[in-house]
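Here is an idea for our session: we take a single protein and study its fold together. To get us started, please write out a protein record for me. Once you have written the record down, we can walk along the chain together.
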Amino acid sequence: MRPRLFLCRHGNTFNEGEKVVMVGAGQDLTLTEKGRSQAHTIGEALRAGGFLIDSVLTGPLKRTFETAQIISGMLAKAVQPVVDSRLTEIDYGEWGGLSDEEIALRWGASVLADWHTRSIRPQGVTFSPSQERLESEMQLLLDECSRQDRNALVVTSNGRLRTIGKLVSKDSSQSWKVGTGKMCVLECHDGVWSIAAWDCAPISLVAALSKAAS
């Protein structure tokens, strides 16, 4: 059986009615009640699907670590999450803590749209790490997971997931954005990863994987 890499984005960090802002490495927010519920849903789906997870990697920020803890506690086999600093969300510089409306007003709606739709970084705003380092870190992580020949769960944030999507697909025409509480699956064959599913609700993802296996 080919090893799988289950990727998931942390749960919600904003309650309904709250101001939604760009959340990067500098905004270490905790999960909301809905965010914790989303993490439970992921854990339930993985257990119901009978997927054996051998290792859990997570970024150190509160929202990712708490998501990983909740999921890990629900798996068929108990696995302690391991913090990997390479899974820390991007620091969005001056954009961090601003709403889409505020960003569009200061930098332009087209600049914001380029980021949302194609993950094109804005000129004049320093995101950290650099795109080159970000891609290098994510490629190294993928290479390490491919050599382990086992299923792993990676809990991280949107900026990192976008990069993984681009690296594996070799397609820069879309953003590879992942919604909160959503999942992706990569499958490895002869050391090469391919995308089996992307930005899926946990329940529908498990159903799709089960159907493909039958």
About this structure: The mean pLDDT is 93.
